[in-house]
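User: I need a structural model of AB hydrolase-1 domain-containing protein from Trichoderma ghanense for a docking pre-check later this week. Nothing fancy, just the predicted C-alpha cells so I can convert them on my end. Input:
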Amino acid sequence: MQTALPGTARDPFLPPWTEAASKEDLTSTAMFPHGLQLRPDQLTRRGSAVLAAAACLSLYLLIRPTLSPRTKSPKTDIVRVRNRSGVDPADPERPVPYPPDLFPGGRDVETVYGTVRVFEWGSEDGDKVLLVHGVGTPCIALGGMAWELVRKGYRVMLFDLFGRGYSDGPSNVAYDECLYTTQILLVLASSSMSWTGASSFHLLGYSLGGALAAAFAAYHSHMLRSLTVVCPGGLVRTSHLSWKSRLMYSHNLLPEWLLRSWVRARIEPQHGQSADVPDGGGGDDEAEVNFDDVPVAVGRSTVRVGDVVRWQLDANPAFVDSYMSTIRYAPIYGQHDKVWAVLGEKLAANRELGMGLQRVCVVLGDRDTLIVKDEWIEDTRAVLGEDGVDVRVIPGGHEIAISKGKEVANVANVAISSWKSCRLNGGKASKSSGSGSGSGSGSGTRSKRNRYRN
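Assistant: Understood. Predicted C-alpha cells for AB hydrolase-1 domain-containing protein:
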C-alpha cells in the first residue's frame, strides 16, 4: 500500500491531528513502529510522567517497612569475647589483670544475648547479696566489697554486664534498663539456689549499677530485701552534660565509625586526661584521684583499674559499642520524673502497707566530682521522700566502692540489718542515724579529669 502525502488525502493509519500539521511539524516528530508519531512536547510530558512514577515507587519502597507490621523480629547478633582462657596470646607467661577464675563459683551462663560470666560463693545459709558493677570496669571492681560481705556471712553473686569482662554483647539492641533488667533476671535464674520470689535477696549497685539497681527495684521491689546504691547514676542532672559529650554520644549526627573511634580514644587509659562524661566544672586542683591508678582490692595490689580497662579493650570486641549504647540509652541522666519517680511511688506505697522495700540506702563520696553530694542529697529526698532514703556520706571520691570496699560493705551491712529490724518491728521501717548521713564537706563542682568508666 502506498501512503498518501500529507495535504492530499488522509492516511487512515495516521491520527487525526496529522491533518492539520505543517511540514515543519512533521519533520520534527518522532517516528515509532506501526506508524505512531509523537511530537516533542508529548515526549516531554511522557518522560515527566515516567520520572514521577519512578519517584513514587522509590518513596513507597523506602517507607514500606514502617507502614506494614513486622512479621519477624531481627535475629540478635552476638559479639563474642575473643579469649575466655585468661591467657594473653601475645605473652602466655604474663598473667592477665582479670583472670576468669579470680573468684570462686565461676560459671558461664548461656543466654539468647550471649554468654554471661557469673561468680557465686559464700555461706549457703546466709542472706543473699547481688552486686552490679559500673559502666566500664567489670565485676572485678567490686571484689573487695564482695569478699568483705562473704566474711560477714553473706552469700554473694557477681557478674559481668553485657559487653564487659568475659560477657558477650548483643550488637543490635539498645543497652537500656530493659536489657539490663533481663540480664539480672537471667543471672538470678542461673543459680542452683533460689534467688527469686518475695524478699529473696539484697541488691547493691555501684555507679551505673546503682542506676540499674534502682530501675530493677522500681518494678521488682517485691523480690528485694534491701537496696543500696553507691555513687549511683540516675539522678545526674543533664545540665552537667557538655556539648562535647552530647555530640560524642549522639545518634545519626556523625558517622558511627567516627564516634566509635572517638569514644575508644577517650576510654583508653591516659593517666590524668579527661576521658568521659559527665564533665565540666572545676579545675585540676579539684580533681579526685586519677581513676586509672585506683588499685583493685582483690589481693593483687599491682592490678589497677587502667590495667583492667586496657585488657578489656583488647579482649572484648563488644566493649566500646556496649559502652556507647549504655551512655545513650541507660537510665543514667535526668531520671527524676521517670524511673526514680516510679521507685519513689513504690516505696511510699510499701510504707503505707508496712511491708516490702520501703527505703533506699544511698552511699556518696564527699569528694565525688561525678555524683555531686549536695545535689544528690537534695534530689533523692525530693524524689523518694524524706522517709524513702537513707543517705550516707563517707570520705573519698567516685572510686570508693573499689578503693574502700570494706567500708562500703559495712554501710551496706547496716542497711541489711535495718531491714531485719524492720521485719522484727512488724514491717515499719525505722530511720537509721548512721554517721555521715547527709553531712560532710564536699565539692559541688566537677572535674574535667574524671573518667566515668566505673
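Before docking, keep this in mind: Residues 40-67 form the longest helix (28 residues).
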